[in-house]
Amino acid sequence: MTARPPFPGIILILTFFCIVTLGICFAGCTAAIDPGPVRIGVLLPGNGPYAVHSPEGLAWGADAMNRRGGRTIELVYRDTSTGNISAHAEELAGRDDIDIIIGPATSAELTQIAPLVTERGKLLISPSVTTGLVTAEYKENDRFWRTCTADGRQVEAIFWIFRDDGVKKVSLVTANTPYGETFARLAPAAAAMNGVRITGAISLNTSDDFAEIAARIGEEEPETVVAAVYPEEAVRLADALHAAGSSAGLFLTDAGRSPYLLASLGERAEGIQGMSLSPDPSTGYAIAYEEAFGDAPSPFAAQTYDALLLAVYTAARQEAAPAEPLAASLRWVVSGDGTVKGWDPQEASEAAAMIRAGKHPAVTGASGPLRFGEPSSAGPLAGYYTRWTVEGGAFSEGTPVPSADVSVGLPGLSYDPAAGTGDGPVVWMVYPLVKGDRSFADSAYRGLFRAQESFDFTKREFSYDDLSLLDAVFSAGNFTEKPDLVITEGFQFTDASRAWAQANPDIRFFTLEQADFGLANACDVVMVPYGASYLAGVMAADMTETGRIGAVAGAPVAVIDPFVEGFRAGAKAYDPAVNVTVAYVGESFEGFGMPERAGEIARELRSDGVDVILMIAGSGNTGIVDAARETGDVYLIGEDTDQSYLALNLVAASVVKQIDAIVYHAVENEIDGTFTPGQEVWTLENGGTALFISPRFDEVYARLPVEWRERAIAAEKAYMKTAMP
User: Are 117 and 93 in contact (CB under 8 A)?
Assistant: First the structure.
């Protein structure tokens, strides 16, 4: 199969003032049988403080789905930061070839354009109108939908945070808009439930005197100012509080998060906190977005992508049931109870094909499960929020949390004959945990996604939770869609991988950190982080001011030993007087998925004087970061992948394994027919592992990995002679 180049600079392709055509209708189809492209209107801003939706992410999604065949998708984009939004809405709603429009960005815009769109029988799907007032106002309008959760959930989450942080007094500032009114209405009850007192409440207009508002807040003496305002007002409020010498922290709601905030305030933005909607971390959308565009997704990028999915699926349903009203088709789409389908272009294309064939898949999105109650204007039943902090001129995010109970899982065996098998080989990826650990699983998915952008193949994803299902399938050899390559990640699959490979000699198995099975169809990769951890110990011993450093590990298992032993050895080599404490979250595999417990251990270490912590707790690392933020005087070292984005000012380095590159090349070898059985060992010496110094710390500490590299390599070789004979 011929490799295709990675997705090229879509931002350059997308212009914010013209029709975006992404695909070509199949040649040779006659007008009688060709339904033509699915044209979807888009009314979102491309510039300015409200540009937080990623139209380029929409274009990428449509292009990627078009590459997989099926009915072509075209986006008809109108930039609402230029021109008159009502005129744009009139134009798109008046077109006979457009039934669904994605947008608008704000509640004020919704009031302007909703009648223009829905009264013409068209569907309007907003990814970012979060105000709760919309639910009641549009209760009877089944043509208005939104892919963002309502602000009532966000209000509750904000005051939960304040309770956990011990905040007792806050001032509330809300914009004099439907959005701000929601917070003004709901905040008092949420505050009371969490033991927080609102010392004062201000509803502001853009014409107000912000210096006077800051003075009033000063008189109230709050610990934190909660501001449900838009970016322009957030900037003016932050400047006014700074000028007034306020010591209160500033906490913004989702509308305040924008690149505009950082660009306008510069260093004055440091320390501002807030909350915003987040992608579902188990989907891997944020990883894929970063791979495609080089940056983390903007606050409403996932919800905007999900609006595209709903539009594509509704169009597919209309093909299967042309007499069905549009709103009824969309309601049918989100009530699926069949095969679970994920957000990514492959899964989305398969879901659309299934819907056209009359199947009823259970669709999920980038932001979480696409499940809706009544009315449609209420938004999805659950979504994810994340707390962020401005650190080093960027937004650093904490652990995403769901607004309601969410069943986390992967599409798994999502094959359905109606979807077709696609081109190229079939690759199964089996993770130790569902994606979202910001470590081992996420790094593997990064490599898998990168491979999907380069090659033609079909992927299926599983986790340890699917072990019994996979055992049954491999032992019986009862495949509806037989894999050509199976990648299993993690020591916990050692016995299973061996059994599967022995029972299926015609399937190639690529295993990470398991064993050399001595089989012609199995290749195992061992990554030895001893040398990189040795360098981490050197760095920690150099950084500490208390002479006490530590490590928080998921469990005392073999895969953790080289981290711990290398860290200890490096610290002792640098300074024998340094004290190293190692604490374990649990006794088994489950310890790598317990962020709250990991955070508790980090607090205990800090109380004992530890001021540098190596994080080797899998998804539990996010809990360690959250605990470190509470005091800001603990430096952290991440694992497996560069984890500096978790806290730019706190994560000084990361012990990295090139898991993404290894997974990518496993797929590449399958495509090229160059699979080689046996065992590969990756170390500090051959570049399979390394100590990555975070950008904020590079100037001071970049010398250490260079100066100590040879000693670390020698120590690693000595370790391997005894630990890996």
Answer: yes
Are 369 and 381 in contact, with CB atoms under 8 Å apart? yes
Residue 220 has pLDDT above 80, yes or no: yes
Look at residue 481 and tell me whether its pLDDT is greater than 50. yes
Cα→Cα distances 100→109, 145, 463, Å: 17, 11, 36
Give pLDDT, residue 420: 66
Task: In whole angstroms, give the CA distance from residue 283 to residue 408.
Answer: 9
Q: Can you say how many angstroms the Cα of residue 94 is from the centroid of all Cα atoms in its chain?
A: 36
Sheet holding 426-431, edge to edge: 458-463, 426-431, 485-489, 508-512, 522-527, 678-682
Pick the closest to residue 492 from 434, 437, 444, 432 (CA basis).
432
| Phi/psi of residue 174, nearest 5 degrees | -130, 145
Is pLDDT above 60 for 1?
no
**Who has greater pLDDT, 631 or 235?**
235
| Contact criterion met (CB below 8 Å) for 632 and 611 | no
> Can you tell me the distance from the alpha carbon of 273 to that of 165, in angstroms, rounded to the nearest whole number?
13
Task: Give the pLDDT confidence score for residue 20 in this predicted structure.
Answer: 40
Residue type, 546: T
Mean pLDDT to the nearest integer, 499-514: 96
CA distance 598 to 620: 6
Reduced to 3 states (helix: H, G, I; strand: E, B; else coil), residue 321 is coil
Nearest Cα to 144, choosing from 98, 179, 109, 101? Answer: 101
**Burial of residue 110 (number of CB atoms within 10 Å: 0-12, 13-18, 19+):** buried
Tokens of 161: 């945070």
The C-alpha angle with vertex 150 and arms to 325 and 326, in degrees rounded to 5, equals 5
**Among the listed residues 212, 275, 261, the one whose alpha carbon sits nearest the alpha carbon of residue 241:** 212
Q: Which of 407, 402, 363, 405 is nearest to 385 (CA)?
A: 402
Q: Name which of 640, 676, 656, 672 is nearest 510 in CA terms.
A: 676
Cα distance between residue 677 and residue 524, in whole Å: 8
The model's pTM is: 0.85
DSSP 3-state of 550: strand
DSSP 8-class letter at 417: G
Over residues 348-365, mean pLDDT: 96
Contact (CB, 8 A) for 302 and 277: yes
Q: How far apart, in whole angstroms, are the C-alpha atoms of residue 478 and residue 114?
A: 51
The CA distance from 654 to 686, in Å, is 18
Burial profile 543-557: b = 16 or more Cβ within 10 angstroms, e = fewer: bbeeebbbbbbbbeb
What are 116's two structure tokens?
């223009």
pLDDT at residue 22 is higher than 80: no
More confident residue, 131 or 486: 486
Whole-angstrom distance, CA of residue 239 vs CA of residue 233: 10
Token pair in block for residue 229: 């305002």
Q: Is the peptide bond before 375 cis (omega within 30 degrees of 0)?
A: yes
Over residues 408-433, the pLDDT tens digits come to: 778 877 877 777 656 789 999 999 98
Q: Comparing 214-218, 422-426, 447-451, which segment has the lowest mean pLDDT?
A: 422-426
